[in-house]
Amino acid sequence: MVWPYLYAMRKIKLIWDFRGPAAEKTAEHHEIHLKEYIAMEKLPVEITGFEVKTDMHAIAFMVVTDAEMIQVRDALKPHRGELFN
Q1: At 71, phi and psi to the nearest 5?
Q2: Is residue 8 part of a domain?
Q3: Boundaries of domain holding 72
Q4: What average pLDDT score do residues 39-65 get?
Q5: Average pLDDT, stretch 20-28?
Q6: Under 8 Å CB-to-CB from 75, ≥6 apart: which residues?
């Protein structure tokens, strides 16, 4: 059976949205806390970041696998998520 293996390898981008004139700085700072959480929990997560969407909207994100998603979601309460390619 192949599909459970593929499902386990799926990557999910968990996203925190920040809005307003300080959105970029807030998202950039939030990424620091995401990295601290990864280190504290000893997660095998390698992809984090922040992106400026507009001058009033920025995001911080972390890419996790399905195996890590529930733990991170429950602890850090991301605003949304999407599949990551």
Answers
A1: -60, -50
A2: no
A3: 22-84
A4: 97
A5: 98
A6: 37
